[in-house]
Design brief:
The chain is about 30% helix and about 25% strand. The protein is an alpha+beta fold and about 200 residues long. The chain folds into two domains: about 80 residues, no CATH class; about 70 residues, no CATH class. Strands 1, 2, 3, 4, 5 and 6 form a six-stranded mixed β-sheet that branches. Helix 1 runs antiparallel to helix 5, helix 4 packs across helix 6 and helix 5 packs antiparallel against helix 6. The relative contact order is 0.12.
Length: about 200
Amino acid sequence: MPAVVSETPSVEVTDTELPFSTEDPYATEEPVYAAGPEGEIDEAAAEKGWEPEVYDSPSSLVTQVCSDLESSPEELGQSPAQWLVEGMHMEGDEKHILLLGIPKLCPEYSSAVKAAAAGKYERWFGDGTYVVTSKKVDGEQTIPPGTYRAEGKMDDCYWERTAESGEIIDNNFATSARKITVTIRSSDGQFTSERCAAWKPVK
């Protein structure tokens, strides 16, 4: 008896159009920003094309700078605006992001960031030896002549005014002080401060 061979009909699979759409009606290519001032900063910066070099987002840059402004300038003997400029925060897109974001996240520093952007701000002076001059000297720390005051808890604070030759004109060592005022003359050569609070111009 001959063998029976069963043949399974082949089915050709073709691309067919489904009677419904497979696209997500809620899908969007538009970025979604967080609610609140952080989202406002990120959205506004994106519209302008501003991007921070190191931080993940414009708002994370502003958040970190606001946090640093609480302590870093005083520790370094710098005014907030001076810290922003000398810390290289007021360059490129970061300048625009901080001008936009600081008033939203730490408005108490709004005047500092505006002064930093304008290049007109008060300078403070921490520990170190400064050449007495109103001009900038390459490779040197400088301090303009004037009257300065250091305030705060100061233990073993030493300061001195010296002539260009290095001869001491005036100096003092305070084992414990809360306020010290010094007038630096235009004829002085250098001013040195060790373990004192920041010297701020007396207005």
